[in-house]
Design a protein that fits this description.
- This protein is an alpha/beta fold and 301 residues long.
- The chain has a single domain, classed as Aminopeptidase, CATH 3.40.630.10.
- Helices cover 33% and strands 21% of the residues.
- Strands 3-4-6-5-7-11 form a six-stranded mixed sheet, with helices on both faces. A three-stranded antiparallel sheet has the order 2-1-10. It has a two-stranded parallel ribbon with strand order 8-9.
- Strand 5, helix 3 and strand 6 form a beta-alpha-beta unit.
């Protein structure tokens, strides 16, 4: 993602989750489990850097698809191609649907790819190294996989779509980024939603979530309702102050007419560096976001 400032662009061990294992004595099947979410974060990182066009990317995509199949009513790959110079890269959004009888559909999204180069690393020798993306990618996906498990245990009152976008972090410029969300926004037939919530970089140990400015400008009522709910739930990481404007996967959805807000902690010193690793993240942070998302699903706004 790219941060926008006033002057314009500023380029600025858990085991693998097992849905068949007995639930924790302290956490019911229908309760968001932060430790399970963190295990999902670690599992993604065990694959390595999830760079489109690599075997690791393909293996991770197959894993995410299979995991969502355990929980969802329907899961599909939404394939697309990205062409640059003489190369064609195959990418896949992963879409999952969960039932619900009440009107209104919520879209929950995150990106599952990782950046091909650590262009923000303080050491120049590392800047062509792919990032592991524990926070930048894996954290949002981890929350949504655990939400999916909860939705299986306790079907939601409203329809829920989970979208894992590919190609968010692929390019060096914005013209080669947000590829999966842009494709989805142009091809939403059968997967339309009334509003959306994007999760990006939500696993930082020192989690601070101010209101993202583009979300505020495009969907103020929705943004206010979500941050107010967080306050009512006693989640101080959600800070009712305006943060920076972030270019991210929510913008193509907003342009397509789906009000979407971005929950993101952009004040993360390891962004786009090789140090974006699981030890910089925490189950507690994932739990803060997961609890809020679960409450929105089952209680509404």
């Amino acid at each position: 993602m790219i941060i926008l400032g006033s002057d314009g662009l500023l380029l600025c061990t858990h085991s693998e989750p097992d849905s068949d294992s007995p639930p924790s004595l302290l956490v019911s099947d229908a309760t968001f489990d932060p430790e399970r979410a963190f295990a999902y974060l670690e599992k993604q990182c065990e694959f390595g850097a999830r760079v489109p066009g690599t075997p690791v990317h393909q293996e991770t995509g197959a894993y995410l698809f299979t995991e969502l199949e355990k929980f969802a009513d329907e899961v599909i790959f939404q394939p697309f191609e990205f062409r640059q110079q003489n190369q064609t890269i195959q990418m896949n959004n992963i879409l999952a649907r969960f039932g619900g009888d009440e009107s209104g559909t919520i879209l929950l999204a995150a990106h599952w790819d990782t950046r091909p180069f650590a262009d923000r690393d303080p050491h120049p020798a590392n800047r062509d190294t792919p990032i592991l993306g524990a926070n930048d990618g894996a954290s949002g996906v981890a929350v949504l996989l655990e939400v999916a498990r909860v939705l299986k245990a306790k079907p939601p009152p409203m329809p829920v779509i989970i979208a894992l976008f590919d190609g968010e972090d692929y390019g060096r410029t914005v013209s080669n980024m947000f590829l999966g969300s842009t494709h989805f926004a142009r091809n939403m037939s059968g997967w339309e939603a009334d509003f959306g919530v994007l999760l990006d970089m939500v696993g930082d140990r020192n989690l601070e979530l101010p209101i993202e400015r583009n979300s505020w400008n495009a969907a103020r009522e929705l943004t206010e309702a979500i941050w107010k709910r967080a306050e009512e739930m006693g989640l101080p990481a959600f800070q009712r102050r305006l943060g920076p404007a972030i270019m991210d996967d929510h913008l193509p959805l907003i342009r397509a007419g789906v009000p979407t807000i971005d929950i993101i902690d952009f004040d993360y010193p390891y962004w786009h560096t090789i140090e974006d690793t699981p030890d910089k993240c925490s189950a507690e942070s994932l739990g803060v976001v997961g609890r809020l998302i679960s409450d929105i699903i089952y209680s509404g706004l």
